[in-house]
Amino acid sequence: MIPDLRIGGLARLSLCDWPGELVATVFLRGCPWRCPYCHNPGLLGARDPSDPAWEDVFGFLQSRRGLLDGVVFSGGEPTTQGGLGAAIDAARGLGFRVGLHTGGAFPDRLAALLPHLDWVGFDVKAPFDAYGAITGAADSGARARDSLDLLLASGIAYEVRTTLHPALIDEAALDALAAELAALGVASYVLQPFRAEGCADADLARSARGLAMPTLSAQAQAAFPRFCVRVG
Question: Residues 164, 165, 171, 175: what is their CA dihedral angle, to the nearest 10 degrees?
């Protein structure tokens, strides 16, 4: 049994959580940040009686050896949970490659996990000095930057991605963010437009309908060896 692992859901097959891989995605509860466009706000609350137990998730993974490429731990912010490292090692013990979705809220915890990971999807919210307006946490930009530095230094495969909501990030801020990321050495950058599905902030969901989505200048795009806008 893995202690202190609060699971909020399990996607038994995902084609999008780790691009190019067939994976199961384990959604963990908890996050120290409160981004208004969060598409999984239900994971921020307390444990639900219907939540799967790790033993059941592990049993499912055992049955999918040879059929799935890997396992992704997502959230919420999965590094919130102390049992994550043991769960990663258990999945690797079954022969799976392991990916992680994170916003980098806990640099020290991420540093300990990186040697056990094969891929990271890293969410960057805004220029680092403007993070607090989105996350509600004053030190979140510094934490995210420290975590991103650790990821880039690790040599692990990754993609950095930013969710675009036109009321929260405009084209000037997006260009500024892209310049910061390029200067840090980010090679793989993905933009993904805000989707209202799952967003608990009804006003924010409505406001996106009347505003043009910001775009990244061609010059800024060219700074990344791998760049795309993900629409699906």
Answer: -30
* CA distance linking residue 16 with residue 5, whole number of Å: 24
- The neighbouring-strand residues paired with 6 are none
d(CA 29, CA 211): 32
The backbone region for 107, taken as left when phi is positive above 0, alpha when psi lies in -120 to 50, beta otherwise, is alpha
pLDDT tens, 136-184?
999 999 999 999 999 999 999 999 999 998 888 899 999 999 999 999 9
CA distances from residue 203 to 73, 118, 210 in whole angstroms, order as listed? 30, 38, 12
CA separation for the pair 146, 154 (Å, rounded): 13
* Single pTM value for the model: 0.94
Mean pLDDT of the chain: 92
Neighbours of 192 (CB within 10 A): 15
Residue 80 CB contacts under 8 Å (≥ 6 apart), including other chains = 28, 29, 30, 31, 32, 105, 106
The DSSP string of 13-74 is EESTTTTTS-EEEEEEP--S---TT-S-GGGGS---TTSPPHHHHHHHHHHTTTT-SEEEEE
- Decide if 39 contacts 124 (C-beta within 8 A): no
Q: How many CA atoms does the CB half-sphere of 170 hold within 13 Å?
A: 2
Please, are residues 162 and 123 in contact by the beta-carbon 8 Å criterion?
Answer: yes
| Measured distance CA(217)–CA(219) in Å, rounded | 5
7-229, superfamily in CATH?
A: Aldolase class I (3.20.20.70)
